[in-house]
Write a structure and sequence with these properties.
It is built from 4 helices and 21 strands. The protein is mainly β and 445 residues long. Helix 1 runs antiparallel to helix 2 (22-29). The chain is globular and about 65 Å long. The two termini are 12 Å apart.
């Protein structure tokens, strides 16, 4: 992609006839802006700027009988482990539409984006302008009816548009994502944890708090050295609700020597001079020889909090993991745990056994209820590019006052290289639900 390749090729040819020209080759190479800035990937350079181009296309299609609240292991749907805003389980039974007698459901999702980063040198460090365009299309049909309310056809939108300048200290302004750190909080057991999945894996403050992030921002981040970094900013400056507009964010983090940790604090609605709500997120992850440890907690000013701790140990071919979680909700304190064991039978075959349990203080009108899942997995890398995964298990669906549900699933994943990945997964449940999911994605940079 670089025009300099033609120039260097011509100089190299001239260098064959005159040895003195060889030194000039190094001079010309150093003139390339992208190399001078230490930038690589898909780039185009001019005399003063380096333009980096990256992007991705992701497609997903689902078909089966799983809509209208079916009990599915896939927590991206309305299922057993899908929680509502107050932390309680909400599930409905899988039924055929009583009016039409139809029950098939399907979804089609498309997400694509392309990002341009133009960078030049300045007295304060690299100066960049970032533009990211994104499009999302999503169609959902339940019980063979009309396109569902969750469907959307969003045209190409300006997902990011901001400027930045700096090296060890970077100043950013415009439309972009948040500087909040919410990592170091993923449980290590195979099946994960129920409340952790509710908040998109990990811990978080209550979603009803309305602490906006990203959007129009003014941010500064600084690397202090020795693995320590700090960041601060004003985010969500374009919120149309006066009581939510402006979120003040502060972050301190450390990474090094097998240890990562962070603390994020955020206060929402500061533009009107009054803090409407605030929250915090803290996490720690450490690797110590054969052992791994994760611990995290998050909460807000309304008294809601949730936390988890997880540990894993690897002994030769075996890995054992255990996780615990707790959440203080409006209905009371919920808590649960998960355990798993993995055995690398061969270099290409791994067997996983796992279980998880959750105590919901107010999951139904009947009061306190418990639920659990147990599962066995077989993961086999049949070739360097193809991986097969099979899973069987049991979901205790007490949380929707129904009988236990046995299930089985199989997945074939193919990664031939070049950044392309695809997979096909089939699921079947004893309650009559079933689903097939196809995914394909490719990214470039």
């Amino acid at each position: 992609m670089k025009i300099r390749s033609l120039v260097l090729g011509s100089v190299a040819a001239a260098g064959l006839s005159t040895a003195g020209y060889a030194a000039d080759l190094g001079v010309l190479t150093s003139l390339d802006v992208c190399d001078n800035l230490g930038l690589s990937g898909l780039t185009i350079s001019s005399d003063t700027n380096c333009l980096q181009i990256s992007g991705s296309v992701e497609y997903e299609f689902k078909w089966g009988n799983y809509g209208a609240g079916v009990t599915l292991v896939d927590t991206s749907e309305s299922g057993f482990s899908r929680l509502n805003g107050d932390g309680n389980f909400t599930v409905a039974n899988d039924e055929v539409d009583p009016v039409t007698g139809k029950d098939n459901d399907w979804e089609s999702k498309l997400k694509a984006w392309v990002k341009f980063v133009g960078t030049a040198s300045s007295d304060f460090g690299p100066a960049s302008a970032v533009i990211k365009l994104q499009q999302k299309q999503y169609a959902l049909v339940t019980n063979e009816g009309a396109v569902g309310s969750g469907s959307a056809n969003v045209g190409v939108v300006l997902d990011e548009a901001y400027v930045s300048v700096g090296d060890s200290t970077v100043i950013m302004a415009g439309k972009k994502g948040s500087i909040m750190k919410k990592g170091e909080d993923v449980p290590l057991n195979v099946l994960g944890l129920f409340n952790s999945e509710k908040v998109d894996t990990g811990v978080n403050w209550g979603t009803e708090r309305g602490i906006g992030d990203g959007g129009h921002v003014i941010q500064i981040a600084s690397d202090l050295g020795n693995g320590v970094s700090v960041a601060a900013g004003l985010e969500n400056l374009n919120d149309t609700a006066a009581t939510k507009a402006g979120t003040a964010v502060g972050v301190i983090s450390y990474a090094g020597d097998g240890i990562a940790a962070h603390l994020t604090v955020a206060a929402a609605g500061v533009l009107d001079g009054v803090v409407e709500s605030w929250g915090y997120h803290a996490g720690f992850a450490g690797t110590f020889d054969m052992f791994k440890l994760v611990a995290a907690i998050a909460g807000d000013n309304a008294g809601y909090w949730n936390g988890l701790a997880s540990a894993a140990a690897t002994f030769d071919m075996f890995t054992l993991a255990a996780s615990v979680e707790a959440a203080n909700t409006a209905a009371g304190t919920d808590y649960g745990f998960g355990v798993s064991g993995s055995a690398a039978v061969t270099d290409t075959v791994t067997v996983n056994l796992g279980g998880r349990w959750y105590h919901d203080a107010g999951g139904t009108a009947n009061g306190v209820v418990d639920g659990y899942q147990i599962a066995a997995q077989l993961v086999a890398a049949v070739t360097e590019t193809i991986t097969l995964t099979g899973e069987v298990g049991l979901y205790d669906t007490t949380l929707n006052n129904s009988s236990d549900t046995f299930y089985g699933s199989g997945t074939v994943a193919w990664a031939p290289g070049g950044g392309f990945t695809t997979s096909l997964k089939g699921e079947a449940y004893a309650n009559g639900a079933y689903k097939a999911t196809f995914k394909a994605a490719k990214s470039f940079q």
